[in-house]
Amino acid sequence: MEQSKFMKEIEQFLKSMNGHLILIISCMPLLTGKIKNINKKINKIHSKARKIKKDKETFYTCSINNKIKCDKIKKIGDPIDKAIKMMPKDIFCSMYNTFENHISNLYKITLLTHPNAVDTFDKKYSYSDIVNFKSIKKFKNKVINDTLFSFTYKSFSEQIDNLEKKYKVDLIEKDEVFFKLLKLSLQRNLFTHNSGIINSLYLEKCREFNCRTDDEEKIDMPLHFCVGCFLDAYETIILSGLKIGQNLWRKLFKEEIDVADEVLIKTGYDLLEDGKYELAKVFLEYSCSIKSLRDQKIKKILTINKALAYYLSNDKKRCKKIISEYDWSDNSIMFEMALHSLNEDFIKVKDLIIKMGTKSEVDPLSYYKWPLFKKFRETKYFNQAMRKIGIKLSDCPSVYDIPGNADTIISHKK
Description:
Layout: H1 5-47, E1 50-54, E2 57-61, H2 64-113, H3 127-131, H4 136-152, H5 156-167, H6 176-194, H7 200-208, H8 227-252, H9 257-273, H10 277-289, H11 296-312, H12 316-324, H13 333-342, H14 346-356, H15 364-369, H16 380-389
Antiparallel strand pairs: 1-2
């Protein structure tokens, strides 16, 4: 069966978002490390300078050789310092563009599969326009492209309003995250069109959209945007993109609910595996609130993962509360093991693993990899269980499905 277009789009969105994140967290430490080394060299030269007081002013003098060295070092350091200031802003703008493209791509999928969504044209077509097309298919493509073009020129709030009215669906809650997203759209526009210098239009729009502004945000002042701001923007954008995608998908493609559920579970699991626990909490809270889940088994898996997100971030009280609020009767052995693991009853976890043995539905590698067993792996009971059922990490299958071969996994080669 052909892979769902919505599934492909959401997967591509996640890859692009994580690409931006990796870029910032890998490049920034390198650049800041270089600046630290440059500052050390300059400070060393300054320590050899002589202090001179003249006419109540203080001057520092150094040898010509040291002056030349200092100028060369500064010439290298200035562009790096500039790059450190530019990078969070530039990568943020690129990341926000990824989000905008994601929304447009989702809309395009709906236009291709739900022609009634284009019943009212933003552009009028004359009879002569229509007959000039060689086929209905070409005219259809023209209408869709024109509709998308008009859609992309709307503001984010207008786009969401347009989609919600057209498809009679709530795509995103009008909460604090939504208003943060509106402000991010204004900040991207400010960086793109006004070099990040705050103007009256930006402040007016912030007031119009009920967006919070800092005391430092004043006209003609540069907009502050550091790595911390970028990371906060990343979480806001990725959560919003996932929610909008899931909500639109479930509304218009009810026959693909099973696939949408799989994407929910995989996304939550990946966040846990990557150690993004705060992000996982919010995403899994949303996932568990969805009313169109296929069945109770999916709800149980998502609830376990939600509890696990709190457990791994050391909020064991909230973890236990989540578990206690759900009916766990008629559980499979896997859910029993998950509950014992979250309750830190590791002896029972060990006993269940031994009971299931090597014929378990659990892939042997999962015992060594699953976030669910993270704390369990740190206990003596884990090794006891693995020895009892005769599984070592070296015994796990050495070949797993990998996308492409060694030459194709990395797309860019020298």
